[in-house]
Amino acid sequence: MLIVLLCALLLDYFFGEPDKYHPLVAFGKFANWLEERLNETLIKIKSETAVELSSEFITESTEEVGAKSSPKLTKIEISQQNRLNGLIAALICLVPAGWLTHALVNNSLVADGVIGFSLEVIILYFAIGLSSLKQHAQEILMPLMERQFEQARYALSMIVSRDTQQMDEEGICRATTESVLENGNDAVFAAIFWFLIAGAPGVVIFRLTNTLDAMWGYKNERYDSFGFFVAKFDDILNYIPARLTALTYALTGNWKNAMQCWSDQGALWESPNAGTVMAAGAGALDVQLGGADQYHGEYKERPDLGCGKKARPEIIQQACDMLDRSTILWLIVVALLSLPAWL
């Protein structure tokens, strides 16, 4: 396990995330295609839009066109059907991928030897996004250092779902640091955890679930019901890794502040796992994160996280440095756990 992990991290360090042909890109396109055909809320919205457009050009009544477009369903029925459809969509996305990975890595012709080892390394390499995460942070940090706020806002908009057009320097730094801390768990430590626990199939299931949650896990009209299952499953898969990540941040930063912020603020966040990770990370960096922010044109009140100074550009670099120290710590722990097998 240690050698596979080390090789995957080295591949990530030297090559980063592939610009083309990344498996998650193809997976995302398939997930979008599936959602467009199974999401009852989206189908209803499209049907209503078609009715409105049709009424402008034809003499049929809106009621007649609507009746032909889709059956009338109550909001509760649509919500219940959407939860079931979202579960079916998630199973279609996850079960074949997990089964295929298990079949490949446990095939008698592959399991032992260079092919099996290489396959595990490549799978873990594709699941880990350490270099990509730090690269995105640097693409925001560099314009900030040169006071090019428009470029920094644009780079930030590529990795967060909140509105960035009106953000000042502190807002950009705060959002970037939050993204580094939260995705340090999702893109690095949780992936490593599930590889150590369940091998290649485990990391594949986790990474695909996390990707689906990023696509379908929004609490809005379109995704609230459809993404219900995958959001809950992602919470379950992330429960232990998030707390290990929070502990790692505390060990590689300001221990006292990190543990205090984790205890006081972690449970206040909408997502219990993200709140735990970001509260501990903010405390470890001695920085103030969280607070109100704008999402899709509306301000959303969020709890304050961390303590100490306001977010500044140097905090982004400090967060990336803490991510590196945390990765080294995980490697040391895995090496120590592997010692009995070597002796």
What this model shows, in words?
- There is one protein chain.
- The protein has 343 residues and is mainly alpha-helical.
- 74% of the residues lie in helices and 4% in strands.
- The strands form two sheets. A three-stranded mixed β-sheet has the order 4-1-5.
- It is globular and about 55 Å long.
- About 3% of the residues have low confidence.
Task: Describe the protein's topology.
Blueprint: H1 2-15, H2 23-38, H3 40-57, H4 62-69, H5 75-105, H6 114-127, H7 130-145, H8 149-157, H9 169-216, H10 228-252, H11 255-265, H12 272-285, E1 287-290, E2 293-295, E3 298-300, E4 304-306, E5 309-310, H13 313-342
Parallel strand pairs: 1-5
Antiparallel strand pairs: 1-4, 2-3
Helix pairs in contact: 1-6, 2-5, 2-9, 3-4, 5-9, 6-9, 7-8, 7-9, 7-13, 8-9, 9-10, 9-12, 9-13, 10-11, 10-12, 10-13, 11-12
